[in-house]
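#onboarding

Welcome to the new folks! Below is a worked example of what a typical request in this channel looks like: someone posts a single protein sequence, and someone else replies with the predicted structure as tokens. Don't worry about understanding the tokens yet, we'll cover that in week two.

Example request:
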Amino acid sequence: MRLARGGGAYLAASLALTLLGGCASTLAGYGVGPQAERQAQIQQAGREPAPDTPAVYLDLISRMQTEGLYYASLAHIDAFEKQYGARPDTILMRADALRMTDQPGPAADAYTKLLQTPLAARGYRGLGLIAGAAGDFGGAARQLQEAARLAPTDPSTLSDLGYAKLREGDIDSARVPLMQAAQLDGSNQKIASNVALYLIANGDETHAAALMDQQKLTPEVRAAIRRDAVKVTAARWAQQRAAQVQQEARATPVVSAPAAGPAPRLLQRFSQ
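Example response:
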């Protein structure tokens, strides 16, 4: 596979660099302080009485998950469904919480339940994220492709699809979804990181460095992007090698095997 280094790719990259402006959001930190604060939030969530309407209760659960209180949200989802019954939005919340609390099997079961609902795109995306977390980037790309088909303007899904394509070694196919994601949400640091990864994998170090500077990515994030770039290169090489082996196998003439003699008596008995 040849890398796409033509003017079209550079123009798309330049558009992404132009549109990926905006202030970077503050990422959650680690350490005793944040952990203690998170534990206090969990305890407070457990003490708060359940809201008296389904809409308000769902909003409370959603805010818990936004704050990273996934374990607490699972308890409240159980309480909600006991009172009001399950519905697609609670199934999605449960699936996300299960995935974020390292329970991929139950999470996959929950995401699968969404595939016949109006939230099917979220179900496919969740299944793709689970596959990607397990290192199955081919499977992740297939699930995320279906999610993008159902939700073609969702920037997170498009970015995830582009990343899966990169990790699968298919650099050329990653360009369009990543550039779409960049233009749909130019201030998202994760999308910017994936675009920078694409640019490095495509040999465009200059624009990658400019993008990382523009987004003020930390040295840790930049190092992670470059580590991923090494993995993308290795995956691309493996993909090319596999294609070469298949081509050589098709070009090799098939030698007819000698005619087989009468089958042994034992094999004849098994075939009767």
